[in-house]
Design a protein that fits this description.
Blueprint (H helix, E strand, L loop, with lengths): L6 H4 L6 E5 L1 H18 L5 E6 L3 H13 L5 E9 L6 E5 L9 E9 L3 H12 L4 E9 L12 E5 L5 E2 L15 E4 L3
Parallel strand pairs: 2-3, 2-5, 5-6, 6-7
Antiparallel strand pairs: 1-9, 3-4, 8-9
Helix pairs in contact: 2-3
Length: 184
């Protein structure tokens, strides 16, 4: 049985979802990232979580970092692609001051680099001392910028993924694993 998930008890609600990364794999990867990030920061960072997809990852990562003694302030930023989907714009800003602070941007997935590029420039423009990024999934086959995440959990195949905060039509965020539609 995967961490907190029993396929036999799930009924038909998750038929057609094939796991890409199991809950156990995610737990182990988050723990590994937390250890690396805790060693990376000399000071307590200001964590900025890119909503909505990174919410599960951020919760688990921040708990794992806290258990290692890296306590941080945390808030959320919501960015969205424009209708033309060629640019990213700020939808909801964080209230936490970042001037002179080290910022940790936590995001679920890195695809083309636009979100990470936008958030990095945004926090630097607010006076952040540094901006470090961590993403759970790297699906950078469609990369449009020269920017790369500083810390990466998994290399992800080029498929649409759901679960562990990521959704399709606002569904399946609650899954403790990351899956794709089309169970074999």
């Amino acid at each position: 049985m995967d961490y907190f998930f029993d396929w036999d008890k799930a009924g038909d609600a998750h038929v057609g979802i094939e796991p890409v990364f199991t809950a156990d794999e995610i737990v182990n990867k988050v723990d590994e990232l937390a250890a690396r990030l805790t060693r990376w920061f000399d000071t307590e960072p200001v964590a900025q979580v890119v909503m909505n997809g990174a919410m599960m990852f951020a919760a688990d990562l921040s708990r794992a970092m806290s258990m290692r003694g890296c306590v941080m302030e945390m808030d959320f930023i919501h960015v969205t692609k424009t209708r033309q989907k060629s640019t990213v714009e700020l939808r909801a800003a964080s209230d936490l001051p970042v001037e002179g602070r080290d910022v940790l941007v936590i995001d679920d997935i890195f695809e083309n680099g636009r979100t990470l590029s936008f958030t990095r420039e945004y926090f630097l423009s607010l006076g952040a001392e540094s901006v470090t990024s961590v993403v759970l999934l790297d699906k950078s086959g469609k990369k449009e910028t020269n920017i790369k995440p500083d810390f990466i959990g998994f290399e992800c195949p080029d498929v649409f993924v759901i679960g562990y905060g990521m959704d399709i039509a606002y569904k399946y965020r609650e899954l403790p694993f990351i899956g794709k539609m089309g169970r074999a």
